[in-house]
Amino acid sequence: MSQEYPLQRESEFSWRIDPSGKMRVPGIIYADETLIREMDDKVFEQLCNVASLPGIVQAAYAMPDAHWGYGFPIGGVAAFDPDLGGVVSAGGVGFDISCGVRALRTGLSIEEIEPVKKQLVDALFRQVPVGVGSTGRIHLNDKGMTAMLKGGARWAVEQGFGEPGDLERIEEKGCMAGADPGEVSARARKRQQDEMGTLGSGNHYLEVQRVAEIYDPRIATAFGLRENDAVVFIHCGSRGLGHQIGTEFLKYMVLVASRHGIELPDRELACAPINSELGQAYLGAMRAGINCALANRQIITHLTRQVFADVLPKADLTLIFDVSHNTCKLESHPVAGRQRKLYVHRKGATRAFGPGNPEIPETLRAVGQPVLIGGSMGTESHILAGSEQGAGLSFNSACHGAGRAMSRHRATKLWRGRSVVDELAERGILIRSPSMRGVAEEAPGAYKDVRAVVDAAEKAGLAKKVARMEPRLCIKG
DNA sequence: ATGTGC
């Protein structure tokens, strides 16, 4: 644990760094003692940097899966008040804008999947493009690109990818308002024109999982989950488009920071006032990036349904929910007893609205928003539900995954992709990937213990555990 | 995360 950053234990699952130097607010980390001890000192340093940005409200937060990121920690949450000089930061959203997870029920039990598992994983691997630079069968011209950037998953459904009923189970009903395709450069558009409906690389995957354990039967029933059900998890984002938007705006934000009177503790924290031309331009482009990710996951859902229709015609894939974990969104939150409109950055952190929140679909409003936690390849995933107390703890945010425990480079020194695949196959978990190096980088041992992460999130009060899933097959970038 | 990068 850090010598340099004095952590005060606030409770069994929360830790605090009091403001010092240029920090305007404290840093708060939700974690158990083991997670805190193993957390990179860089997380604390980055959290203190975030806490020093103009207009930050209440505290800079780190989730239990936090690790070192670009500028902001991954697993970081920070909210800014536009009227107090609050800022928006490209690095605070992350390069993979609106990277997120979508979970689907299949209407099948795992016993129905097992006999055709190999056929299913091979068909998915053929049908869903994966890997660095992967392209799909959809090619968008500039007009189509603009419509996609404006319409998100709603556009995808209009194009015949999926069903109108899907939209109800997506954040923002599948279409992020305030997107400004005019702020998305020609280069970003070009990079994306052949990449719709592709999974990408890194930690992105498509898995078929077994519901292994139900923690909260009432909420599980509301989410349509039963033990032994087969479910699909899709984890991916906005591909080359989001990355290009992030890269370009980061550069502009570095250039004009001093003009806005912003002193950057770290160049990677480049940001612009929300109430500035650049801040508004970024928000418009970022929202278009959100729509790109929502459309991408929608198209992949359609491809997945086609595969199931072929291999398991009895299947009926219905959307449980779709959550993004790299965003900046305008939300209303109580601060010291007063509702305030804040721009909440969640980078590697999942929105987790509690019961009653009007943003949650009516059919789920009584139980809270599904919080989808994708574990690493070969390990378990979790579904949680937003809690009422989460509002006062982290602007209704929770963890997003297991969180890396070491660098990709170190992981490739410790594991061989081929042996990882073989070992998982022995446990009946089938992996298909174009990159054995990618598999080594994503080896289960390179990640934190996802169950410890989820337990800490629950015990800190951020969200409530609902169900635990085990992977049976996985296609990976 | 990324038409992976120096």
From TrEMBL:
* EC numbers, comma separated: 6.5.1.-
Q: Which cofactor does it need?
A: Mn(2+)
Which reaction equations make up its catalytic activity?
a 3'-end 3'-phospho-ribonucleotide-RNA + a 5'-end dephospho-ribonucleoside-RNA + GTP = a ribonucleotidyl-ribonucleotide-RNA + GMP + diphosphate
Q: What is this protein called?
A: tRNA-splicing ligase RtcB
The record's annotation in Gene3D superfamilies points to: tRNA-splicing ligase RtcB (3.90.1860.10)
- List the Pfam families: RtcB
Tell me how the cofactor is bound. Answer: Binds 2 manganese ions per subunit.
What is the scientific name of the source organism?
Answer: Microbulbifer taiwanensis
Q: Which family does it belong to?
A: Belongs to the RtcB family.
Its keywords, alphabetically, are: GTP-binding, Ligase, Manganese, Metal-binding, Nucleotide-binding, RNA repair
Q: Which gene encodes it?
A: rtcB
The answer on whether this UniProt entry bears the keyword Cytoplasm reads no
Q: How does it assemble?
A: Monomer.
GO molecular function ontology, one term from the record? RNA ligase (GTP) activity
Query: Which enzyme class?
Result: ligase
